[in-house]
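Case study.
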Amino acid sequence: MTDYGHDLLFGLFVTPSAQNAPRVLELAATADRAGLDLVTFQDHPYQPALLDTWTLLSYAAARTERVRLSGNVLSLPLRPPGVLARAAASLDILSAGRFELGIGAGAFWDGVAAMGGRRLTPSQGVDALREAIAVIRDLWDTDARGVVRHQGPHYPMTGAKRGPKPAHDIQVWVGAYKPRMLALTGAVGDGWLPTVEYLPDGVASLPGLNARIDEAATAAGRAPAAVRRLLNVMNVRFSPTSRGLLDGPPQQWVEQLADLALTHGVTAFLVGGDDHTIAERYAAEVAPAVRELVARERGR
Amino acid sequence: MAIELGIVLDLPAADGDPAALVDLARQAESAGLDLVALRGEAGAEQGLDPWTTAVWLAGRTTRIPIGIAPDLNSPDPGGPGPAYPSVVAKAQQSLEVLAGTRFVTPDAGWVVAPPDAGAEHIRRLADAGAPVVVPARSAEDVRRIAGLVAKENRPAGRSAAVRARRRAGIDYDGVPASLADVAIEPGDPAYRRVTSTYLRGGSPGLVLRPRTSDEVADAVAFARRHRQVPLGLRSGGHGISGRSTNDGGLVIDVGALNGIEVLDAAQRLVRIGPGATWKQVAAALDPYGWALGSGDYGGVGVGGLATAGGIGYLSRRYGLTIDRLRAVELVLADGSRVRTSKQDHADLFWAVRGAGANFGVATAFEFEVSEVRQVGWAQLVLVSTDLEQSLRRYGELTSAAPRDTTVFLVTGRPRQGRSVIQLYAMVDQEDPEVIIERLTPFTELGALAQQQVVRTSYKDVMALAADVGPDGHQGMGEPVSRSAFLPALTGDVARDVTRLLRSGLVYFFELRSMGGAIADTPADETAFAHRTPAFQVTAMGADQSRLNAAWDGLGQHFDGLYLSFDTDLRPQRLGDAFPPRVLSRLRELKRRYDPDNLFRDNFNIDPRLTEEHTR
Ligand SMILES: Cc1cc2nc3c(=O)[nH]c(=O)nc-3n(C[C@H](O)[C@H](O)[C@H](O)COP(=O)(O)OP(=O)(O)OC[C@H]3O[C@@H](n4cnc5c(N)ncnc54)[C@H](O)[C@@H]3O)c2cc1C
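After joint prediction, the assembly is written out as follows.
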């Protein structure tokens, strides 16, 4: 049993489809209205059928009032950290503290290269991300004195102005699957954001991967609870009979999510489907019941 | 002169008040101003990110264009470098999708007036033609600025954001009045619906959409003044060889000329506009018990097909689509409107039936259509483990088939030694027994995996094509296709085609059986002169030069090509499409009717060249 004790977050994992842009914006509005906590978008800049995720995040934030937003996850290779840090802080300021930073080392290197980005090996990608997170946090840290300098090798800086300062302590959530990425997440991340469909054994992979993060956190002198565990579930459905994870009646969703929280320490659940009805039922029939159930169990 | 007036806001430092920024933008919008420009405060702290702020403002307002001063985008020297230009470009496109054309690119330019500028000062600054913006710090400022120029002196036309998308070399302000209300340019909301065709992506600089032949003449006159940019003609948007979209050029889209009218029921004489689709034509003729043989796909437009040939399911019975033509009305390069038929402008009537896209914009076609009642229609899917043998057998069966039976064969790359063969067949007979008798031999070309045989109408076969949705065509990139005529499907052809398909270079391969009534028309009667081939073949691939190399290697089997299915731009293709005597006659006519080579988007016969160039 692992429960890191975080409050629970319920949100959407939305495809930023250009062709269905009005629907994408409506989903964000629905989440806002229905009381979900988060709206998140994938980021694949090299995909012509998808919108630019940064622009979508900024626009959707402007058209909502209370829901928080994040990339899920932003593609570092095409989003240089200096630009990203300032854009992220700006969006956080404009939206009064509603932005969180989901970020990944990148994948689909052909696509990255086609957009003019550098092609990295997986291991270089991990190093670049570690460096980027440090750069981003330094640029946000306006209380420190002097300009920001970094050696590189990926993002050298000879003296960058600090700021702007985000409106709140933006959480850095890392999309990670492999050992070195998990170690990085444990050492410097504020959260771990994988997609269950990409885990080798689905939910059954969680204990092993969680343990790696815990270990890396401890080794870095942090409490494992410093790293929130989030989870994307892409394929979800409300159906009369139970068929699998988040594929069944609402009551089954409630039990499965509560179990993820209490057994595996997952406290943010981002569901796919790109569907209004799912979003509304998730907010109305599932989220409150999971909160209640988890609170009750935690109170024992 | 209309004056475009806006406000310029200082991008606040982090400790500034972002809510005030939104308030000012909203006030400018409700005061009817034309632009909110963002600029940096000199010597300020690291301020808000310009793009994020611009998008945020667009999201919190509904209409007003938003611009970013160019200097705001320069990265700070000790910092980590700029965003990737490709990502920046994509961001701008995305904002357009989300919010419409709201972002004013810096190259649009605007003039910043001093905060205390008066009306006279503003008028002087506006003389340069760019929008004028005045610094605003309060609602009071915005009100005062909006009052500087009377409402009636504000522009009613396209905003600065829209005009900033205009392409070089096009006289947008000179678009003829008759066309201006429906012309579409890159910044317009409707633009994304007109950029693509069925198989091709594009980004034309201006799409003109005439509704009458007089308006077509106006469009042609406008095009004559723009010889330096590409010109595409568009009817139904299913061009393959015909580049009916382009990058930065003009498109004359005659889709609105889509009337279908029976002129003389006794003679079955029908007048059809180029913008109609073959699906619409079939539906309109069906109640009379008539049909007009077109191609195999009802979505194709009349304009492109009826100027090139028209090889379809009824060609063996009634001839090519162009063989049913009795007259074609054209707008020529000099703007004159002519009616061509065997009696009038017989030379042009000859040329337009096969090489029409070189000679003018067809604005109406008159056809003598055929009486066609019910037909047999079959879609068969067969799996063959010996493609070479199946092709040979298909060749034998189609050659032996009567004129009422037309079978097209489609296949692709064999997988694990197995080829999936699709047959599309029409039998112009009403009796089910005859239909079955005609089709049965074809079911032996492989193991029958699926079959659907129905007695139906030509209209219903054409109706299988999907309608184009409200967002228009969605093609992307460029199609890669080669075409040829086959005098016969010999064993050698079957062998070499099988080898080609195994190479994986071709994902779509089609054999159309010809013969029958196509050969009844003498070769010199139309510019489409290849009357005797047994088949027309099409191969589509992903890479033009690799497909060319493979296709050229099969050249000894071919005798010419059907231009509509060929995207190769090498000059020799013109010689394949038109035999030498036909080509030299076409070139003479081209010199007479289009000496400046205005019409050039489809198998262009350049009047300045000679036949040497096509050998
Ligand atoms: C799915 C599909 C199926 C097809 N099936 C067949 C078939 O079975 N048989 C067959 O013969 N062809 C067939 N074709 C080819 C088709 O006939 C040509 O591509 C034709 O040009 C399409 O006409 P359009 O008006 O739809 O195209 P558009 O893209 O509008 O025009 C294509 C070109 O035609 C010329 N053109 C268009 N309008 C005019 C006009 N008013 N005056 C003068 N020139 C004009 C221009 O050169 C233009 O570039 C098919 C094409 C596709 C994509």
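Observations recorded in class. The radius of gyration of chain A is 19 Å. The mean pLDDT of chain A is 96. We will return to this complex in the next lecture.
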